[in-house]
Amino acid sequence: KIDKTPPAIGATRTPGNEYGWNNKYVIVRYDANDTLSGIDTTAGGFEDDIINVEGQGLMVKGEDRDLAGNTNSIIIDGVNIDFTKPDIVISARQPAPNLNGWNDTYVIVAYAAGDSLSGLDLSKCNLDTDIITKEGKNQSGSGVAVDKAGNTNTIEINGISIDKTAPDITVS
Q1: CA dihedral of 47, 48, 54, 57, whole degrees rounded to 10
Q2: Are 5 and 39 in contact (CB under 8 A)?
Q3: What secondary structure does DSSP assign to 65-81, as a single string?
Q4: 3-state secondary structure (DSSP) of residue 136
Q5: Which residues lie below 8 Å from residue 128, measured CB to CB, with a gap of 6+?
Q6: Computed over its alpha carbons, how large is the radius of gyration of the chain?
Q7: Separation between Cα atoms, residue 125 and residue 144, nearest integer Å
Q8: Among 30, 71, 88, 125, which is most exposed with the fewest C-beta within 10 angstroms?
């Protein structure tokens, strides 16, 4: 018996999102076929690979062998994984409240966000400046940052109290 042909090999992986990013582990499944001598199942080369680290352009290599000893391999590359939520902060709250925690005018709250791996998906972020104009106690505003891997982070500011109405004065 003579078999000089390496086995055929293929692989599939957990697909990325519309930006090519994943925010969970990526599973690579291998498939091999050898019509002459058959696949050597004792070689142990074709178990699934699980990519469980963050990074851009990650890769794995799968190998298999047939019963005649011929080997073949496949490389799955271009895997992008980001598990980390984007950063978001309150970049400004103007004007600051008085010593009693109140403002007598509207309050502007601004947000800033960033993501060092996959980058921000600005179409899904809510980083619009909040302008709180209504009178009332303990009002709030919030910002949302979403990265291109689909990780989300929210920040909320509470305790904004506004009273624009002058006190009533009576003379007795």
Answers
A1: 90
A2: no
A3: EBTTS-EEEEEEEEEEE
A4: strand
A5: 111, 143
A6: 29
A7: 5
A8: 71
DSSP label at 15?
A: P
- Rounded to the nearest 5 degrees, what angle is found at the Cα of 152, between the Cα atoms of 151 and 156? 160
pTM for this predicted structure: 0.84
Query: Edge-to-edge, what's the strand order for the sheet holding 152-162?
Result: 102-103, 152-162, 136-146
How far from 155 is each of 83, 100, 137, 140, CA to CA, in Å?
18, 24, 19, 11
CB crowding 71-81: b at 16 or more within 10 Å, else e: ebebebeebbb
Nearby residues of 99 by Cβ (< 8 Å), 6 or more positions away: none
Q: pLDDT tens digits for 15-46?
A: 999 999 999 999 999 988 999 999 987 766 66
Degrees to nearest 5, angle at CA 116 with 114 and 122: 40
Q: Exposed, middle or buried: residue 5 (CB in 10 Å: 0-12, 13-18, 19+)?
A: middle
Between 31-35, 81-85, 105-109, 110-114, the lowest mean confidence (pLDDT) is in 31-35
